[in-house]
Amino acid sequence: MSITPFTMKVLEQCSITPPPTTAPLSSLLPLTFFDIPWLFFSPSQPLFFYEFPHSTSHFTATVLPKLKQSLSLTLQHYYPFAATFTPSSDLTKPHLICTDHMSVAFTITESNGDFKHFCNNHPRDAKDFHLLLPKLASSFPHQGKEHFFPLLAIQVTLFPNAGVCIGFAFHHVVADGRTFHNFFKTWASYCCSFGSASAFFPPESLPLRDPSVIIDAKGLEEVFLKEWRKRRLVQDIAIGREPKLVDLSVNNHEDHSYFGFIAGGITRLDYPVPITYLGNCVGFGRASVRRKELLGEDGIVIAAKSIGSTIKKLDASIFAGAEKWISDWEVLHGSEQHVHATWSPKLKLYELDFGWGRPKKIEEISIDYTGAVSLLQSRDVVGGIEIGLALPKSKMDIFSMLFTKGLVTLP
After folding, report:
1. Rounded to whole angstroms, what are the CA distances from 366 to 100, 111, 275?
2. For residue 218, how far is the Cα from the chain centroid?
3. Is residue 247 part of a domain?
4. Nearest 5°: phi and psi at 311?
């Protein structure tokens, strides 16, 4: 279901920089083996909708300065989010680059769209949501020259006298969902306490960017880098391009259906990593079920057991089969037969308050082209999960009918 065509008006475009001397000038941040698999993934594109029944003038005069200043203060702790990425044209190890000119693109727009429609739970046309997303600038290596890619962009859209949408585009190569949640939480805390001294963060709660805490005991970095170099030789997979993984070996997967998901690594490692670690520390899980079993009478039970078994294997050894993380996940991307999940209901995203109350709605828009489903903590049901799904209208109509029928027949 689409809505009446609406317009978008750009009010301001600027760059938000961290405070001076936040990071050493021209410092290089090496990627760990946890970061490298994310080179093959497209950016995340979450949208956070907040009720805000005020005028444009009120927003620009009182709220916008707080958002800008609090974001700058947040970037002093999360400065890698303002860094750039280079794929390294000589095919050596990719890395992040921090300079005194690093910044985050920040766009403010105004829309005459129906805010309530965006926050509803019925099916809606995904193309309407794309207008609320920031553009993450990208370029590609050319004639041996290195090019650099920003890791984060933000767009704030005001719906006058109705609400505000904060949209993100960010590359997971810089950090996992846990770190992004902490970044957003810090930004919201600074914004709420703007002009006061209440936003105090004890040193032990501040993020730690120290790749040395990640131990590569199994030599996975070189395994993943070989995959990276191999694919770059076959096709330019520079980060920022519309995501299309190079499928070098499909290995006859048609007899199975897979469900891929991300597993937290900090609690599963056999050595300590601070919970405030800034970066990626997650593993990849992939459950497998034969299609004929999945389509059988006990398909749901069989699928649940397979997922549970995969989780137990990750609990026992998160690195079991890790050398195949990239190739195993390759078949999931954009597939109609296989499914993978993004985000996690363990992240309390609906508690992120900028002073306007909790989000009214959260959507992950990248699922529109990745084929993933989003799993978020429910806003209103304790222990509940919100599932985001993007399908062509004909298939969404069938899914809605079957899903509703299933709810009716539940005991």
Report:
1. 31, 21, 27
2. 27
3. no
4. -65, -40
Please, are residues 390 and 368 in contact by the beta-carbon 8 Å criterion?
yes
Q: Rounded to an integer, what distance in angstroms lies between the CA atom of residue 109 and that of residue 147?
A: 29
CA distance 32 to 37: 10
What is the rounded distance in angstroms from the CA atom of residue 78 to the CA atom of residue 217?
Answer: 27
Does the residue 194 lie in any domain?
Answer: yes
* CATH code (residue 201): 3.30.559.10
- Does some domain include residue 2? no
Residue 147, burial from CB neighbour count under 10 angstroms (0-12, 13-18, 19+): middle
Report the C-alpha gap between 150 and 102 in whole angstroms.
Answer: 9
Question: In sequence order, what are the residues at sequence separation of 6 or more whose Cβ sits closer than 8 angstroms to the Cβ of residue 241?
Answer: 138, 140
The count of domains in the chain is 1
Domain around 375: 8-212+224-237+253-409
Q: How big is the CA angle at 348 (ends 319 and 108), to the nearest 5 degrees?
A: 110
| Spacing of C-alpha 93 from chain mean position | 23
Give pLDDT tens digits for 239-291.
444 444 333 334 444 589 999 999 999 999 999 999 999 999 999 999 999 99
Report yes or no on 403 lying in a domain.
Answer: yes
Helices (H), 149-176: none
> Helix H segments across 113-176?
115-119, 126-130
Q: For residue 388, list its beta bridge partners.
A: 374
d(C-alpha 131, C-alpha 116), whole Å: 16
Lowest mean pLDDT segment, chosen from 169-173, 199-203, 260-264, 295-299: 199-203
